[in-house]
Amino acid sequence: MECEFYSIGKVEEICKITKKALRYYDKMGILSPDKIMDENGYRYYSKKNLLSVPMIKYYKQSGFKLEEMKEFLAGAPYTLFENSFRDKIDELKEQEKEIHLKLRSIEDWYGLIREAEMVLKNNVCNVSIKYIDRCQMTFLDQEYNYDYMDSIINIEFTNYIESIKNAITGPVIIQFPSFKDKVEGKCKNIRIMQETILKCDADKSIEYGGEMVISCYHIGSHSTIEETYKKIQDFISEYGYKCDEEVYERYVTDYWTTQDENKFVTEVFVKIKR
Fold first, then answer.
1. Burial of 155 by CB count in 10 Å (0-12 exposed, 13-18 middle, 19+ buried)?
2. Tens digit of pLDDT for each residue in 64-122?
3. Closest by alpha carbon to 128, among 11, 268, 243?
4. Residue 110: which of 252, 221, 8 has the closest Cα?
């Protein structure tokens, strides 16, 4: 190993690391210069000392903090490496779960915004038949008083999700037990549903989708949503479909995303009987 010494500026150039970082590593006792010239305070590093830099970078890449890697760089016994690495693996797996949860939540929300933009831009409000993919949802049965904001931004449901230690994603969906009662303002109970990110106990989840439905987007305030119900009723009568009694409202964009009711997009659908 050559005995040449390198100034802090040269180390910065060779190792692609800032002088500020090198000074901080020295302060933390991670990487100190081999000698400091008293007369000017210049720092000098040996080639052997420089070889610690790639190791530091790799430990940082692996998620270790400077305090954690200090003993590794000093030549720790294998047992310390084994224990520390196992703990770090567990820690990073937990972080991976949290990142997955956050990423899934924001991607699904972004997807709803894109869906609403498409509906608004193209005025997609004709009745159609479509297939809904199957998935598992958690749910909560509640009383209903036709207060949309209170039902969609639902404190009771949020508290319930926290109590079962889960997380939800995607649109809020409300199941009304009777198409007729909903239109006539007589509905007293609902089932609020939303997809869970984490696995849900069987008694706290229901299977949703996997069926053909008659669907129609409603654009604008929920106060006029009966207009969309009427379009669905007319479609069913015209083509002679047999449908389940329940009706669903899927809130694509609503109070969660905008305060402008003109930009609300709600999908109303009923299941076609087999």
1. exposed
2. 998 888 888 877 778 888 888 999 999 999 999 999 999 999 999 999 999 999 999 99
3. 268
4. 252
Tell me the residue type at 183. V
Alpha helices per DSSP H over the chain: 8-15, 19-28, 47-50, 52-61, 66-73, 78-122, 148-152, 155-163, 179-184, 226-239
Give Dmax (Cα) for the chain: 97
- What CA–CA distances, in Å, run from 40 to 26, 104, 112? 17, 55, 62
Report yes or no: 197 and 169 within 8 Å, Cβ to Cβ. Answer: yes
Cα angle 94, 98, 99 (rounded to 5 degrees) comes to: 115
> What are the pLDDT digits (tens) for 150-208?
999 999 999 999 999 999 999 999 999 999 999 999 999 999 999 999 888 888 999 99
> Cα–Cα distance between 214 and 150 in angstroms, integer?
27
What are the tokens at 266? 């709600």
What does the alpha-carbon distance between residue 1 and residue 6 come to, in Å, rounded to a whole number?
A: 14
**Rounded Cα gap, residues 197 and 199, in angstroms:** 7
Exposure string for 201-224, b = 16+ CB within 10 A, e = fewer: eeebbeebeebebbbbbbbbebee
Query: Which two tokens mark 75?
Result: 């030549």
User: pLDDT tens for residues 244-261?
Assistant: 999 999 999 999 999 999
Tokens read off for 148: 């949309």
Cα distance between residue 184 and residue 254, in whole Å = 23
Nearest to 257 by CA among 249, 266, 248: 266
Rounded Cα distance between 15 and 233, Å, is 72
> b/e per residue, 71-87, with b = 16+ CB within 10 A?
ebbeeeeeeeeeebeee
